[in-house]
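Deviation from plan, reported transparently: N~2~-sulfamoyl-L-arginine complex.
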Amino acid sequence: MSHLRPLLGWSLSLLLLAPALQAATSPQLLRVYFHDRKDVRALAKSGADIVRHGDHWLEVVVPGDDEVSTQSTIHIQRILSRFDKQEVLVKNLDSLLDQFQGRPDLGVYHTVKEAHDELAAYAKQYPQICRVESIGKTFEGRDIEALVVGPQGAKAAGKPKFMFCGAHHSREWISVEVPMTLAKKLVTGYATDPATKALVDSRITWIIPVLNPDGTNYSQTASKMWRKNRRKNSDGSFGVDPNRNYGYQWGGLGASTYPDSDTYRGEAGFSEPETAAIRDLARREHFAADISFHSYSELVFWPWSYSDDHIDAAHETLYKKFATDMAAINGYTAEKSSDLYASSGDFDDFMFGDTKACSFTIELAQTFVPAESEVPDICEKNSNVCLWVMKNLEDAFPRMAHTPPASGTADGFNVQVTLNKDLYPDDNASSVSAVYSTADGSIASTELPAVAGQKAAFSGMIPAKAKAYHFEYKASDGQTVRWPPYRDFDAPASPQQRVAR
Ligand code: 0X9
Ligand code: ZN
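Because the crystal trials were delayed, the predicted structure below was used instead.
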């Protein structure tokens, strides 16, 4: 058919599109085919919600009249008419949720209240290992609730922190279920599973199952395909897309300026309570790694979203490896977030770009609200991805590399460290301290001088009385860097083990 396109493409596509779109009072799911990625970019820019893609096709939600209207929908329709073939995959997306007709408890899905009640019950039953914290209040006065799992009070100091959240987008109900499953696994597994206990005792995990409770409640009770939050915009329309409102590279590609669009970016970066809450939390807590769950597409994304530009090669190599490892657990595909289209103001760009967290977005499932029977499997696999992140990414982007003790005497053992100039090209230090603790609990340190003729390498001997050690140096910005950030290395046990092999 491709040779006919120049003649027939436009008129044919307009004919095909017209009836479906003109009559659209319910949200529809369309599949459209493209040849030129310029059209995809234009579609993303128009504020269309592109949910899934192949090499030459993509699936897009065309909003219903009762959700968003006029301006943005007309614009989306105009761009869609450039695509030369379209299929209506789901004529009325609301009907996906007919399975919950007359079931206000939404079956296996948590309503917002059920999710928050469950977090409260965990905090009551397991106060030694979790608490509920509100990280902010929404327009409708709901708390944005987090379950903070791990040692509480003073015992929390110095532990690596992780964050897992769902429901940036209201209709993506499955994204609530994965964080809820993780919460359940951590708090109920504590008493019965030694590996879970070890993980909970050594880490702080912020679980925010419903980041956008106003929108999620609206989707669950009123307008099923609702995506955004519930801000009342200046033009009388409702909602800002929280995943276009983060203040890192806000206002660029793939985010709409139309308030009634499903991807409306808001009036300014962090104008919304949901994104401001995450901003304040993340800047305060300094997460090592995090995941934001969405649906759907079965993808694991790494930054950047805002641009086709790549992050530096050293970080990207690691991101790609981690995302691929995660995708091996849930069976999804790992890709750079902007691979099909760029979208600005999103969560993981902010988390990585501003706070340096190793941050991912996962698109769960093959539809917004999978059948109830599919939910346990999705939750099992993806909560396992969270556990993998907690186990493996406390030091995702290490500041240093360490050559383990290779030689020693009765007096001590030799160590060598190298600054990780690939990941941190600006890092410099004139010397590095090895800080060690001894059997009697005292702490001491010894200076490791630079190795002659080598770039950013330092070596020296740590005394035999050391039991555990880490390294510290003053970076060029005057900050003291500790590496590894959250733990110590164990010193070799005996002089024999310190002798060169
Ligand atoms: O558009 C979004 O915010 C996410 N997709 S969704 O269908 N759940 O709305 C994707 C976020 C990642 N960004 C890009 N792929 N550009
Ligand atoms: Zn989403």
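DSSP finds twelve helices and 21 strands in the chain. We consider this an acceptable substitute for the interim report.
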